[in-house]
Design a protein that fits this description.
Chain lengths: 141, 128
């Protein structure tokens, strides 16, 4: 009996650990490299030129005209999706194919804008919104 | 004993690879770095740029200058499908070339970057 218990407990623990992962999907999509305040800290308005910015960050995604200069925009995106199908727990015991799905998608999208004067010197810079890094958890409530 | 380990390794690799998926999608033509490098500031004309790179994907106006924008998007997705647990990672990056042409039709500046060169297939969705 003692011998059986020794084998059963680790097996039960293993099953308990595996259960939450059953029917799990984890997906992520990223567009370009995420820029952070640290990665753009080298930009000093009034001093840094657009060429310096391009050398460090690469070409922007768009360049648009403004009344007193040019706006260069760097876009980036970080999407996280996770899904758990608790129906998997009942699959071995039921004749039907049950689904009980919890899923959640977090979309972190932001852009970094650099405003340059007609001489291509950076006048202003900033993030459109602060990117909230969405966590991976499928609980939707 | 060693042979058993090799066999186990092969079986494990085969088990993991049978649930693998690689997908790729591109938008636009590849803009060759060598071609962009031949564009000389102050000498190359608008016509030469069009002959070299083709018509731009977008044409912008900036303070009286024409800006030719060429772009290409590359997406790579890797999926690890382990039946009970699936991981997918899709990465998208772009190559952009901006050619700024002045009022006389001469190239004033060229801004380019090739981000897709560092783009690889990834499966693990966590971390950076």
């Amino acid at each position: 009996m003692k011998h059986v218990g020794k084998r059963t407990i680790p097996l039960l623990v293993a099953v308990m650990v595996c259960l939450p992962f059953m029917g799990c999907n984890v997906a992520r999509m990223t567009l370009n490299t995420t820029l952070t305040p640290e990665s753009v800290a080298f930009i000093v308005p009034g001093k840094t030129t657009f060429t310096d910015v391009v050398t460090r960050l690469g070409a922007p995604d768009t360049i648009t005209d403004a009344d007193s200069g040019v706006v260069a925009t760097y876009r980036f995106l970080d999407l996280k999706y996770s899904r758990v199908n608790f129906g998997w727990l009942a699959k071995p015991w039921t004749p039907v194919d049950p689904d009980l799905i919890f899923s959640k998608t977090g979309l972190g999208v932001d852009e970094f804008q650099v405003f340059c004067n007609p001489d291509w010197v950076v006048v202003q810079q900033g993030f459109q919104r602060s990117l909230t890094r969405p966590p991976f958890h499928p609980y939707p409530f | 004993m060693k042979a058993a380990h090799y066999l186990l390794g092969i079986v494990m690799a085969a088990l993991l690879l049978q649930g693998c998926a690689f997908s790729r999608g591109t938008v636009g033509d590849d803009v060759k770095t060598e071609m962009v490098a031949t564009i000389q500031k102050g000498t190359t004309t608008k016509t030469e740029v069009v002959n070299l790179l083709g018509a731009p994907d977008r044409l912008l106006q900036l303070n009286g200058r024409d800006v030719f924008h060429y772009y290409r998007y590359d997406a790579k997705a890797g999926s690890l499908l382990l039946i009970l647990l699936n991981f997918t990672r899709l990465s998208v990056k772009s190559d952009d070339v901006f050619v700024i042409v002045n009022r006389d039709g001469i190239v004033e500046d060229v801004i380019s970057s090739k981000r897709t060169e560092s783009l690889g297939f990834r499966f693990w969705p966590f971390g950076e």
